[in-house]
Amino acid sequence: MKYSKYNSLIPKDDRTILYNIATDGILMLNPEIADIVKTNMEDVSKIKEIHPELYDAMSKLSMVVNDTDNEEQNVTNLWKMEDCDQTSFYLTVYPTIDCNLHCWYCYEQHKAHADMSQEVLERVFKLIVNVVRKPLKNFSLSFFGGEPLMQFKSVVLPLMEFTKDICKQNNVDLHIDMTTNGVLLTDEVRKEILSLNLQSKPVFQITIDGNRTEHNISRSTKDGNDTFDIIIKNIKDTLRAGMYVNNRFNYTKNSVDSFIDVLDEFEDLSEEERKLLFFDFQQVWQEEAYREIREKAMNMASFYNTQSCQVRIEKRFNKERCKNDAENQATINYDGLVYKCTAICFNPGNAEGILNDEGQIEWNERYKKRMALKYGNPVCQKCKVFPICHGGCSQAKLSSGVHGCILGYSQKEKDDIIKGRLDYILRTGKNN
Q: CA 209, CA 261: separation in Å to the nearest integer?
């Protein structure tokens, strides 16, 4: 037997925590017991001799593993099982890449009137018919853009209704979500969606960029008009209509402190409405990952938690892998070109396939390359944070061509990730 490569000993007050990042196993150790672990890592049989109960506890949490165990391969095998799951399908649709806002950090190249045609929509219908059949149990339909609600009547609503009917006929659970700036999420739109009587209420991801002042600097209309009050009102009206909102907070060094003010905007929500609202703190990716900024954001997130708010963990402390790495996932652009990632410019050079007239996806060589790279390079696989980092997403691997650490983490940053993950589990009791 051997000491797991994914174990870490982390001081905590007057104790030491033995934490395994692969299993999320946690043991609280007093100084004497911690010393037994520290001095016998190379020969865990001595731990068994000295303290059998400790050894048994470590074994149950996979902190001690067989000598022949390839731990990184075990991690990868679990991911492969997830990626090859034939019971779920994830479809993301871009009704348009046009947008009604002008956000400074947006990576997309918006085009006026770049909207999905009826011809392409018919192809999407055929794709849904093709995939919604046994052994499928869950179908996820996501809308992205651009601003998808700019094509609500012509694309979004027809797709929702069609997919609802097909899933019902085939006893498949349907889940719908939409990434929208929230400006066009009006009473009329909500009424139309509610009239569909969907199996489960859709989830809207809506971004706020700080308090009123900071948000309006970042997220104005193309005409320069403010959007904060409109979006806040639409978020609250959506919650009152019984639908979920994931309120994404995009923070920068200038805006991070201002999110304390945003909490006041939701003071008048009822307890039931609060249950439908989630907060997600994410740093604007164009800004350097200053540690002190991230710490401020995490402290802000912790404060939100104390106010009975539901806060999602920052991605680098989260074990959830990007659904775009799944085999049963496709992103259909307005023009019928197929992609895997939503965080890229949608130009033909980045496309990984095309949706043909029969509703079948014809994947290209770029897609095949992505699939070959998605489980990380040898450097990634040997890294201590591999179970949570995943070697970076497949898009990063595809784009970078880096053979070392794709994300460029220093050892200190890796240690911070492990500690951050542990702190999250201890704070929330969750291990998602």
A: 12
